[in-house]
Amino acid sequence: MKQLHLILTLHGHQPAGNPADVVQQAIRECYRPMIEAIDRHVSLKFCLHLSGSLLAWFERLAPDLLDRLGRLQQAERIEMLAGGFHAPILAILPETDALAQLAGMQESLNHRFGQVSRGAWIAEQLWEPQLCSLLAEAGIRYTFLDERLLHSDGMPQPRTAGYRMTEQAGQELAIFPIDSALCQDLPGTAVENLMRKLLDLSDEKKGGGLICLADDWEGVWQQSWMETFFQSLEAASDWLHTCTPSQWMNQHPAAGRAYPACGADGEAWRNFLIRYPEADRLYRKILAVSRKLAEAMEETELPDENCLRAQNLLHKGQDHKALWQGKFDGLYSPALRQAAYRHLLQAEVLLDQQAQGDEDWIAFDSIDYDADGHEEILVENRLINVLLAPNRGGRIEAIDHRTSFRCISDVKDPSARANFVDRFPAPGSALEDRLSARQVEEGDFAEEPYGIESLGIDEAGECDFEVVMFRAGSLKRALQTHPLQLTKRLRIPADRPELEVEVRLHNPADTPVDLHYCPEFNLSLDVTSQARIEFDGMTGPGPSTASVGEIADASWIALFEKGTGRRLRLSMQPAGVLWRHPIETQGRDKQGAERILQGLALGASWEMTLPPKAERTFRLRLEIQTLEADSVVPIPSEDKAT
Fold first, then answer.
1. What pTM was estimated for this model as a whole?
2. Is 377:394 a contact under the CB 8 Å cutoff?
3. Which end of the chain is more exposed for a tag (fewer CB within 10 A), N or C?
4. Which residues, other chains included, contact 553 with Cβ-Cβ below 8 Å and sequence gap of 6+?
């Protein structure tokens, strides 16, 4: 008689930074009915992965579901999978963080269900060889991977062959291949068609083989389809048997060895960091906070409460969702990115308070922050962090407002966005040209390297940080090239959340040059706050952040977030034209395409004729203002819990 075994794996995750009402809806519409369906079909066995943060949500919002899962596990009807507690991309984390995430998940399973797991779910199926030894060190004996990652040698084994063994430096790990072709039928095809395909596979291996299906709870749950599928599995019990991974491993040897391809779906994920600069900046922030935590832990024999709280916040900020181009959210979601930054900055503030105290302080470091072979300058004080990239146009690539735990420069866009970017569009260019991609850039300043003339903290004065950068560049117009020199002096006060820039343009030629100087700024919007535009000479309510406009002969413009009381104010001297437009991306949700408001682009604009050997000076200031004096915002109580 035909025989086939089936491992049916469901994995679920909700980031710690999700709004509670979103998670409550997911529990009501997906998790609860799925667990109830599993409970009803007593003859079926399942492999379940719920991330540590999702289990924490259950404990907070639906503790009865944890009790039900505990009873199902005691009855050996489900096998729970471990993994990173906050579902991070394990392969890109420092080893100490990855092991701590794995250990935290095992501790959670042991606390809630009385046992640890032999298996682990890898977020987004992102495989790299070091995961083999990492998981083995954490006590993990098996995992699941898309079967396509196992066929990189061009020699696929029979689909029903079972699990394979892989190894790294002699440390072994079993891999159950997920049948990706069949998973496309969950729940996208008629149940009878899926059952017919399973029946056909039951003949592929004499004596009975194994098929692994896996999908996420939210994507697979359709109540009527799933109920029909479970009933069909029960009706086919004479030839189809569900089992757990441990049950299969206890009775069957491995089907051979395999060395999976790196990445997700065979694509090297680390190139994702090059393709999406906003993902790379978030990843670099994860690494920076991790280094600070490691240094703090080295200074104490046992981690103190402060370090443990910072570690928990760091782990929340490592959630893969904000780094991943998800089907419905992921990297395109400002809310997920802001939640990740909030947790990371909360951790950083705790660690810096421990190291620096509560008084004003300022520090800087020249460091290859993004591992591209060029040094950036990282400036930090009690109120803000600023990352300066002299090699990329002397631009500001990141600005963190530490007292509100916000990265105000985190903007998702197909083109790399930054602040204090020196642009020189053709004279006569209008904002419409920029919006329609017709604007011609004449200068070679926005992306090219600047030299550093001086750098340091004025210890004899007010202890402000200052750097002076210089570039001898040019303007290219038609077939002519005009030399132009730009000196940029950036100053960051020790006691205020602001940046001051003085730009001096010098024409070294013996002929005049017409030019259009247009420094650019890109600021993120708080998704929880109603934001409006304010500007010099405004009367009445300000325009919305989704509006496009120019203001002539103005000296300042601001983005005011009513809900937070925060104002991001850009001022300029001399007065000139101030322009603005929203930054939007084309995202995807369950209903299809949608426009996502990511941030606000601001710019100053001056057109001029610069005589021979003459120079002009411009001053710009970006201030982060609050209705009340800046102070350290208390960490919300919900972020104290694991």
1. 0.94
2. no
3. N
4. 575, 576, 577
